[in-house]
Amino acid sequence: MTLLSSTVEFTPDPSPAERILATAHDLFYRDGIRATGIDRVIAESGVAKKTFYRYYPAKNDLIVAFLDYRHRNWMAWFEDAVKRHGGNANALVPALAEWFGSDAYRGCAFINAVVEVGGTLPEAVDISRRHKLDMSAVIRTLLPAGSRTAKADARALAMAVDGAIIGAQFEDSPEVALKSLARVVKAITDTARM
Questions:
Q1: Which pTM does this prediction carry?
Q2: Which of 45, 55, 57, 118 keeps 20 to 30 A from 176, CA to CA?
Q3: Which keywords belong to this entry (predicted)?
């Protein structure tokens, strides 16, 4: 899967489970979890209702599978993107610019999921928390080695990334969010060097 398109890519001949997950991924991310009914996922994935329920007995099962799938793929993309852009904290801005500039960009699937279903689906909160901790761990690897404040700095940068993700959803252009993130990155990296 590439985060810069709206279509999940599977094998040339995807299984029914893969088609269901790919369809749910695109619909949940683009239109929202609550706004996407199971009948729509079934129709757009081209599977029979019985087949759908064999793989996902309830919508909550599909939501959890969607979040797990999104987590694995987003993290793979994120790690690759920051490496391609220099492998240090400054790589956060151009990496996120790639994502924010995509026509498929709809913010953070995990923040969106917690807002939509977090009160009724604790698993969504757990997966989202793990996602944010894993993102923070990757960010920590971008900071200078040996810093006594690396853990706190990584968490601060992760919060700034989340703020930029949300800001990019509301602004006419993601540039404001990216410039704000760049300022936070500079402040933290300048302090870490001292």
A1: 0.91
A2: 118
A3: DNA-binding, Transcription, Transcription regulation
Residue 11: what pLDDT? 63
Between 6 and 25, the higher pLDDT residue: 25
C-alpha–C-alpha distance, residues 11 and 122, integer Å: 31
Is pLDDT above 50 for 193?
A: yes
Distances (CA, A) of 25 to 61, 64, 164: 13, 11, 23
Domains plus CATH for the chain?
A: 64-193 (1.10.357.10)
Angle CA 149–97–193, to nearest 5: 25
As given in the structure block, the two tokens for residue 187 are: 């402040």
Q: Which helix (H) or strand (E) holds 170?
A: helix 150-170
Burial bucket for residue 52 (CB in 10 Å: 0-12, 13-18, 19+): buried
Give the count of alpha carbons within 13 A of 122, CB side only.
0
Enter the tokens of residue 194.
């001292």
